[in-house]
Amino acid sequence: MDYSTVSEIVKYAFVVIVYLFIFSISRMIYLDIADAKRREGTSGKGYAYLKLVNLRRNLSFKMHESYSIKEVAYIGRSKKCQIYIDDPHMSKSHARIFLRDGHFYIEDLGSTNGSYLNGRKLPRQAIRLKDTDKLTFGNISFIFVDNMGSES
Questions:
Q1: pTM above threshold 0.90
Q2: Beta-bridge mates of residue 142
Q3: pLDDT tens by residue, 127-146
Q4: Low pLDDT (below 70) residues in the chain
């Protein structure tokens, strides 16, 4: 192979890499917009939401990028939960997030593997949530986003 042939191969490989990069960025933007529309369409104006931290492609089960929370949301493996997560490390009714006196709280519902707030295992009593708290249930982590501005 001479230099010009190698140069042509490298040039075409570079073009393919650039197109793949542009495609992946466009796909991420599309998925983010689609998820925002889904969240607005299914729950109207939620007071808060959970934003998934994990990469969905690394999970063996389906999940949304975010989940809206109004006054109360049960989280668990049961399809009766408002936030249904088919993670084998989740209990059927794992945790509950609820609104009380203008603030959101979380409580573990006696789950087998526990619930974690900012890396610390939750006790049995409810704990007040703050905007940007990190919540972990089973193998899944979320960021809590409070749209009410109830931070005080």
A1: no
A2: 52, 135
A3: 999 999 999 998 889 999 98
A4: 1, 34-46, 56-57, 148-152
Closest by CA to 108, choosing from 132, 86, 137, is 137
- Residue 96 CB-density burial (10 A; 0-12 exposed, 13-18 middle, 19+ buried): buried
Largest CA distance in the chain: 75
Whole-angstrom CA distances from 128 to 48, 99, 111, 115 are 13, 9, 19, 14
- By CB atoms closer than 10 A (0-12, 13-18, 19+), residue 142 is buried
Here the tokens at position 60 are: 């063996």
* Spatial contact of 59 and 83, defined as CB atoms under 8 Å apart: no
